[in-house]
């Protein structure tokens, strides 16, 4: 087995108020996503999203079922979205080879039994993924940045000028519940998802990358009137419960991947919080 997925429980906002740094990190932070020749991650009981990293270095890796699924194959009752955050590589899906470049995405639907991730020739292979329970098979689809729905938000004056690439969202590709995309901050801008929001209908996971040198991100979470922060490094992810805001400020600009699962697939369904109401 080249796959290690650890279970994380879901959380109650009242309990969360008493969490110190250690409890917040143990319950929400995912530190070691890229382990040499391994698929590593977390099975979150928040909407049963699996959040992981795939890091083939000198041998191909197969997507095998893990114990939590009680299934023959990983995608027996699931769908998966993969975004390449490393060098151009290939992914084999039941014999069909997809070439996936840096910042391109691949959706693979329920029922596919053989998925193989190859190490890239050019250099380092780092693939980030989210997987959610699925009820129906939708076709495997590659989505490049040109296929994405693109929105630019914020301004340099507010240090939140950023471009949102909606890659695996329902207006671009058919999925059962998974929605994923990528947000790039412009140089000089550090704030993402400010103004912040919650969406009780869907949980979310964030993966921060393109953080150079020793730069870090302070990620904010909690109910809007009871927030906490946690420091993240490059290539780390964080689980965001449906009741929690998810916002961040970096010591530089950066890029992050957001992924959601839950009640609806309406990207715009957000309860925005006025910044002056945050506590
Ligand atoms: O629910 C949507 C997600 O939180 C992100 O798309 C928000 C985001 O990328 C941003 O505003 O910077
Ligand atoms: Zn959100």
Description:
The protein is mainly beta. The protein has one domain (3-277): Jelly Rolls (Sandwich). Helix content is 4%, strand content 44%. The chain contains two helices and 24 strands. It has helices at residues 13-16, 21-28; strands at residues 3-8, 29-30, 38-44, 50-55, 61-62, 78-84, 89-93, 96-100, 105-108, 115-117, 127-133, 141-143, 149-153, 162-168, 179-185, 191-192, 197-198, 202-209, 217-223, 226-232, 236-240, 245-250, 255-262, 271-272. A seven-stranded mixed β-sheet has the order 1-3-4-11-6-9-12, with no helix packed on it. A hairpin with a 2-residue loop joins β19 (217-223) and β20 (226-232). The longest helix is centred in the first third of the chain and has 8 residues, at 21-28. The radius of gyration is 18 Å and the shape is globular. The protein starts with a strand and ends in a 7-residue tail after the last strand. The mean pLDDT is 97. The structure holds 4-deoxy-L-threo-hex-5-ulosuronic acid and zinc ion. Residues 153, 162, 164, 181, 183, 192-193, 204, 246, 258, 270 line the site of 4-deoxy-L-threo-hex-5-ulosuronic acid (D54).
Shape summary: globular
CATH class: Mainly Beta
CATH topology: Jelly Rolls
In this entry the ligands are: 4-deoxy-L-threo-hex-5-ulosuronic acid, zinc ion
Q: What CATH architecture label applies? A: Sandwich
Q: Report the C-alpha radius of gyration, rounded.
A: 18 Å
CATH superfamily: Jelly Rolls
What fraction of the residues are assigned to beta strands by DSSP? 35-45%
Helical coverage, percent range: under 10%
Number of helices: 2
Give the terminus-to-terminus CA distance: 45 Å
Order of helices and strands: EHHEEEEEEEEEEEEEEEEEEEEEEE
Strand order across the largest sheet: 1-3-4-11-6-9-12
Overall number of structural domains: 1
- List unreliable stretches of 5+ residues: none
């Amino acid at each position: 087995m080249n796959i290690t997925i650890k279970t994380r429980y879901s959380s109650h906002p009242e309990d969360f108020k008493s969490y110190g740094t250690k409890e917040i990190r143990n319950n929400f932070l995912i530190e070691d996503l890229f382990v040499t020749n391994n698929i590593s991650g977390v099975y979150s009981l928040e909407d049963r999203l699996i959040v992981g990293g795939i890091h083939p270095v000198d041998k191909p890796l197969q997507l095998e079922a893990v114990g939590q699924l009680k299934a023959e194959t990983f995608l027996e009752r699931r769908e998966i979205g993969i975004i390449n955050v490393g060098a151009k590589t290939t992914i084999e899906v039941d014999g069909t080879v997809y070439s996936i470049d840096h910042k391109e995405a691949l959706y693979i639907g329920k029922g596919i039994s053989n998925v193989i991730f190859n190490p890239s020739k050019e250099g380092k292979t780092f693939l980030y993924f989210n997987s959610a329970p699925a009820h129906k098979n939708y076709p495997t689809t590659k989505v490049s940045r040109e296929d994405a729905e693109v929105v630019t938000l914020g301004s340099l004056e507010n240090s939140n000028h950023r471009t949102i690439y909606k890659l695996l969202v329902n207006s671009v590709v058919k999925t059962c519940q998974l929605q994923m995309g990528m947000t790039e901050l412009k140089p000089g801008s550090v704030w993402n998802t400010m103004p912040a929001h919650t969406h009780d209908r869907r949980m979310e996971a964030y993966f921060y990358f393109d953080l150079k040198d020793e730069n870090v991100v302070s990620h904010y979470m909690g109910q809007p009137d009871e927030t906490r922060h946690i420091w993240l490094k490059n290539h780390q992810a964080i689980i965001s419960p449906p009741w929690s805001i998810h916002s961040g400020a970096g010591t530089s600009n950066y890029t992050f991947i957001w992924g959601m699962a839950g009640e609806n697939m309406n990207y715009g369904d957000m309860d925005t919080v006025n910044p002056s109401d945050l506590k």
